[in-house]
Amino acid sequence: MSLEIVILAAGQGTRMRSALPKVLHPVAGKAMLGHVIDTARELNPQRIHVVIGHGAEAVRERLAADDLNFVLQEQQHGTGHAVAQALPFISAEQVLVLYGDVPLIEAPTLERLLAHAGPAQLALLTVALDDPTGYGRIIRDARGQVTAIVEQKDATEEQRAIREGNTGILAMPGARMAEWMGRLSNSNAQGEYYLTDVIAMAVADGLAVATAQPEDAMEVQGANDRRQLAELERHYQQRAACRLMAQGVTLLDPARFDVRGEVSVGRDVVIDINVILEGRVVIEDGVEIGPNCVIRNSTLRCGAVVKANSHLEGAELGEGADCGPFARLRPGSVLGARAHVGNFVELKNAVLGEGAKAGHLAYLGDAEIGALSNIGAGTITCNYDGANKHRTVIGVDAFIGTNNSLVAPVTIGDGATTAAGSVITSEVPAATLAVGRARQRNIDGWQRPVKKPKA
Ligand code: UD1
Ligand code: CA
């Protein structure tokens, strides 16, 4: 059956107390609405309609994509009114309604819901709640068939005692929608057009209403304020941590681990506390990540080790390579197999060959460093002249003394050595020693300055 999805995202979210539209508040680094859109995509719908209103421009700008049809709901007159705005664009047999501020909903739950929906059947996602305050209540007849949804504000005492709540997520036959939407009225406690009124209409028209429940109640939890947002964040992180542990990762403390993106992991990976993984991170077998590391858009090959307090972005560590503690690898940093970058070393657009080392306190930018070469402490590639960037190319098995300034563009040949404290401004041929510093002078009988007596 053809499927279209309508995501309601026009509400204001006053309780967020924010200039940012509610649905753009992030969970795990991604806008709540972005999560809902991605989950919607997993269902391969013909089209996704996103109903926007508050902060419409910001939402559209942030999330625009070819498969999304943004529909403006200028004034928010209720969920029924919101869906009605998308109606002119809908032609599918099946229509699924999702909420932009309910980000943890999962595709398998929606697939189960859709399995219950059909041309003569609606499907509602409901949830059993300890405290159903604020939710629409699911009204069932003596045979247990759903007959209506009554909103909290319109409910009788008796109805308010019902603990089965409406999640708001439902699937209905597209062909019937226009007629039902046309019959919605706003004569209720809130003066709104309730999408939930469709249920009683469908029942009156002789359609059946099936129900399904989420695997996990947090899937249908919305975020109305920042406390709820934080709860969703923690739940998401818990789920992400469990997933990785199930794949063979040891997390020293799953409660102190955050994923904000997509991570693929091998087996026997060990991750210490307070590690944040962002963007696309690939972690192969046997990798170890020390505490307090931030790793973004990076690849760690088999057996690589990232020691405590390192920050990696757009970096690749080859097999058995290691960095840190306190290493900073910026975009374009590539460490060959078993290469080593130690503490307080910054790399940017720099490639270290197999087994190359930069043990301490260095800045290597726009550089290519051959296998087995050693970069002394305090070495700086002077790659920027204030206008342009220039490259430093160092051959295989070179030895760069401590505290060198390598003024790029410059080339240092295979097996070359540079003396400590050198400023290297021109090519160093292979297998030579370059001494680029002033010769030491010793001055005999030198008198230290003496302090003037105070007047
Ligand atoms: C709605 C349901 C209620 C359900 C609850 C679950 C109705 C009438 N009620 O109530 O049965 O238990 O959700 O949270 O449907 N929105 C728009 N335009 C509007 C109004 C709302 O886009 O004009 C969007 C909101 O941004 C939000 C969603 O629809 O994402 C739900 O709106 P909200 O006002 O939170 O509905 P509730 O009154 O909580
Ligand atoms: Ca709500």
What does this protein look like?
This protein is α/β, with parallel strands linked by helices. It folds into two domains: 3-220, Spore Coat Polysaccharide Biosynthesis Protein SpsA, Chain A, CATH 3.90.550; 226-434, Hexapeptide repeat proteins (UDP N-Acetylglucosamine Acyltransferase, domain 1, 3 Solenoid), CATH 2.160.10. The chain has eight helices and 35 strands. An eight-stranded parallel beta barrel has the order 15-17-20-23-25-24-21-18. A hairpin with a 5-residue loop joins strand 8 and strand 9 (146-150). It starts with a strand and ends in a 21-residue tail after the last strand. The mean pLDDT is 97. Uridine-diphosphate-N-acetylglucosamine is lined by residues 8-11, 51, 73, 76-79, 81-82, 99-101, 135-136, 149, 151, 165-168, 194-196, 222.
